[in-house]
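Troubleshooting: if your tokenizer reports a length mismatch, compare against these two reference records.
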Amino acid sequence: MGGTRFEIPEGFRLRILTVSGKVFVTGEERSDGEIDPGREAHYSDKEHAVEFKSRSNSLRIRVPIGMNVSVGTVSGDVTLDGGLGTVKVSTVSSKVRVGRTSGDADIRSISGDIVVVDCGGRCRATSKSGSIALGHVAGAVKAHTMSGSVEIGTAGQDEVEIKTISGRIEVKVDHGRSPKARLKSLSGRCRCEIEPGADFEIRASSLSGSIEVQER
């Protein structure tokens, strides 16, 4: 059975609220949206949002490329792919994977791992016990976790701030960019393999994990 198509008013974003169902959102060449399994869309003119809610059912939604998306869930994993705009995800224990975004990404989880492949704007990622992997970020980066590892790829155009307690930190910088690196770890090794400069700043701290800065 196919999904149900829904209209997307100009300037509206997609908002999804679930408890335990998985969420899959894909951006593609189209002007409307499609959701499977089918359900009624709710429109909020005040917040300029098309909204869907679910308790335990997984949702697969297709929207136009570049659409802004926000997701709130408790335990259902979240996958956003296909070239979206600005994305926001808030979850308790879900794993979150974001493909490519043309705008900012703001991902917050308590215990789930976070992966962002390619962020075209700023990126903020926080998780208390999950690992964080940001493949490449065009803008500023803020990544905070307690016990997970952190891997960041940056264009070197804006500041990078990373904090962890026991996880390893690795930062890879685009070729030709020279950072002012401020690295601090109480018991782990700190190493920057790039000639220092003033193109942008990296602030990274860990209590027991190693910190490394390398060229991509």
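Reference record two:
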Amino acid sequence: MTIFTDTLSRPYRPARDARWAQNSLRLVRRASAPAARLAAFARDFAVVLGVMALYFLARGQAPVRIEDSVALTHLLVSIERSLYVFWEPWVQDVSIQHHWSRELANFTYAYLHFPVMGAVGVWLWWRDGESFRFFRAVLFASMAIGMAFYYLFPACPPRLMELHGHELGFTDTVFGGETAVSYAQPSLILNEYAAIPSFHFGWIALASAAVWSQCRWWPAQATAVGLTVLMSWAIVASANHLFIDMAIGGAVIAVSWQLAARLRDRRAVAAALELVPAPVFAEAA
């Protein structure tokens, strides 16, 4: 009976051993997966932070050309006037009638920008790494285009136009006193004449587009749209940008989106071609 039992059980041992090995490997992978994911997360965000640091350093080193900056902003104001859309002084005047609304505009402009981008970036990475890398490519492309503007077309923010002899009806609420908001920046990265493109608008719009395209939950989509509207209002209410500055910022994001999409498509084609074996041609005798 013992011999019969051993004979019956012996053929199942390899299968049982294989299952045990597979289960052990699965447990090891599960144990190491979180650490690997965290390492990949840290690596990807280190790249973002490094590129952004270089971007702000280069932005801060752009030559100060005050006369050119003021002249360009004056031209943009003239364009808006010719289109009958130079409403920014009126919007700001209405928006800062109360201290709380004035502070809300300053707070939104100074403090809401990067936290929203960071939160959306973290959420997007853990949700879909491929989408995160696409939006990161859009961000990087917009930085390159924006840098060209800062060096070639510096522009004065509306709040500083009076300082240079152009009274347009704007009030500097961020640096004009009577505010608890501090928007001071280190001199190494400071560039007060980089009004176009407006990335306070463009990058918030990009973050909102990421939420809208990757999440079908309507409260999240509504929040994304609301944040873009809030930032748009704060930009004008604090006299940091014109409408046309924001339009240029949005256009830069649109162009960057197309560039990132083409790069993604080319990579997809290249990856597909790598999977196709090369044809073997017989040499003619």
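Descriptive notes for reference record two:
- Residues 43 and 63 are 33 Å apart (CA to CA).
- Residues 13-60 form the longest helix (48 residues).
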